[in-house]
Predict the structure of Mitochondrial (Mt-TK).
Amino acid sequence: MDKVLNNLRSIQTRCDCGIGENRRLSYQSAHEIYLLAGEVAGQLQLQLPAIQEPPRGGFQPEDYAPLVCAEAEGLIRLIRQYEEQLGKLPFLRTGAVTEEVGKLTKQLDNIRSAMSEVMRLCPENSDVNSSQMHSETRETTASNQSAASMKVAVKLMHWLQGRGYPRKDKEFDRLPDFLDLHDLGEALLCELNSMVVDFDLTLDGTILQNENTKQVLKRLKGEGSRGVCIFLVLKGDQLVSIPADKATKILVCIDGNIGSRKSDFMKKLLEINEKSGHQQVRVIREPLKELESDLTEFWNAVEAGEDASDEQRAQSSRFEETMFDHHYQVATNPDLRRTHLISERSMEAKVHVFNELTFKKGKLLKESRDEMQRKFHVNIRGQKCYQPHAVVFFEISVQKAHERIKERNRPGEEYITQDYLTDIEAKYAALYPPSAANVIRLDSDQPMEDLLVAVQSELPKLLKKQQCASDEEIDSFTQFFQDVRSEPSN
């Protein structure tokens, strides 16, 4: 709360300079107070309404100074009284403070409305008529107006436990456009391991868009502002970023087409885990054995093609939802992520490969597909701690994969065609292009022990390059993939 109180005292300081003979609030000082009030609202996580202009009853700019000063003093008293509760996230606030939030919002809105009126009354290029204006006040000079550069700070509006309100600064050698600011916002969220599909950038209560960004910044530039603080407001379900100190353990996914020998490799890893009793690594297979009857129904729906009934489409959608939930838990469940994980198939493949193909074939209901996509993009995409640190991709030709599927003769898989495997191959090629930095590609048509040796050789280099854990922890983890063949006897 110290920053909140300091901002309110800064408001009072600027107002004090507007009280008394031969002193008045300038456009510049009013604009700064307006911004400070907005920042206080952001720090307290209060949503301010659109600006409502106060009644125009012949007030002069200096008449607003004592009123705003009194509002700031009232805010300080309320915040000190409810400091502990206000420091919590909005949905955790309880008791009397919930009744006072309306007062806080109203007082901040009053301050902003008053300063909006002062800016209307004052010429935009008016000089500050007081030598006692606060040292932080930016001076409006001809050189500032003609300078081309602008400093921009994008500030996360939501409280991040243990890290306050993170921000990212950048100085542009020109007036930035909306895409520049949006990229800066994405960079901030990436640094926080929290990237969402949609967010708003707000400045002076205005939501910035392609159409208005340059206009808003030009106006501020003309007022002498060489820098702005823009608030980033997250949208969707995830309202608070995940602190970096909550980073999870290593996640490696074993991926590839159907019939690429992933299952054999996962079985080998389970054997190793059972024999070694390794406590720091957990091997997780897809729950296909437990869902065998559901999987059979899924393949029956695929075989039915356009003749599939509504019930079959609903069943196949439920199967895909169950598999999605499995991969979602692998990625996000804190109990699972306390240890290093080796998981069969990645969540990215579930969403971008199999969901999309099932939807294309008409066996995944649109509402199911859309909900899974929304959940993935809002809560997973861009979250480095939830995405695989490495993907071991088993490469195999479509023809060879189809032969292996026939040989293993699993229920329902007789409906898998080479065309379907070719579609999967194409989707994987788009998901994991040759430039993908976290993918290890292996020819799966070789002994399991040779695959283990290849993984143990390549995986440490990839993980250390990403700096996802200490070198010692990575070396310890990758020892899990050691060659378990007996030494040849002499």
